[in-house]
Amino acid sequence: MNILDPALQDYLDRHCDAEPAALQKINRDTHVQVLQPHMLSGHYQGRVLSMLSKLVRPERILEVGAFTGYAAICLAEGLAEGGTIDTIEVNPELENRLRSNFEIAGITSQVRLHIGDAAKKIVAFNDNYFDLAFIDADKKSNLAYYQAVIQKTKPGGLVIIDNVLWKGKVYGEENDTQTETFRKLNIQITVDPRVEKIILPVRDGLLVIRKL
């Protein structure tokens, strides 16, 4: 998943804040016990998400795609006092693990876990409700998620989308369906006049979007 030179990534990992103990355990358990552990954000990206959240100090966070809860826990580090995070996960088999991981991290009271189809769950929230949103779910639906989530994000709020460099394929010559889907997403957001945007070459690419 990493697009950076391994030596550079190792250097970055060693020169950011340490991975908290609870996240170390979740990271390790995910890699040992869960299929497709590469879907977990991991140490460096997790610290980036935590930093962005702390800069925003959000009262309300939306996460689309919880997996085993690693990113949600990182984002929750920046919540304002009394703030909450709504996280959506389509796979019901992950519910017990998610609740256990949130308990391990001590954020159970701050998290509202929704199991089911993200597109249907997002509609239920009020417009201009969230200060920060993170999209890391079904990749073919990213553009639809973005279009729905941007309506639910407050002016001045952030929307972050993961994997937008798609293993480096988006700037190469590959023309498979998933790569073209990410190119379309990136182009449409680039020309969206409602937002400011920048791609960070973190892990597999983070697109950071600020709603005007």
What can you tell me about this protein's structure?
The chain is of the alpha/beta class. It has a single domain, classed as Vaccinia Virus protein VP39 (Rossmann fold). The chain is built from eight helices and seven strands; from the N terminus they run αααβαβαβαβαβαββ. Strands 3-2-1-4-5-7-6 form a seven-stranded mixed β-sheet, with helices on both faces.
Short description:
By secondary structure, the chain is α/β, with parallel strands linked by helices. The chain contains eight helices and seven strands, in the order H-H-H-E-H-E-H-E-H-E-H-E-H-E-E.
- Percentage beta strand: 15-25%
Helix % is 40-55%
Poorly predicted ranges (pLDDT <50, ≥5 residues)?
A: none
How many helices?
8
CATH topology description: Rossmann fold
The strands making up the biggest β-sheet line up spatially as: 3-2-1-4-5-7-6
The shape is globular
Largest sheet geometry:
7 strands, mixed
- Tally of structural domains: 1
CATH homologous group name: Vaccinia Virus protein VP39
Average per-residue pLDDT, rounded, comes to 97
User: What's the SSE pattern?
Assistant: HHHEHEHEHEHEHEE
The CATH architecture assignment turns out to be 3-Layer(aba) Sandwich
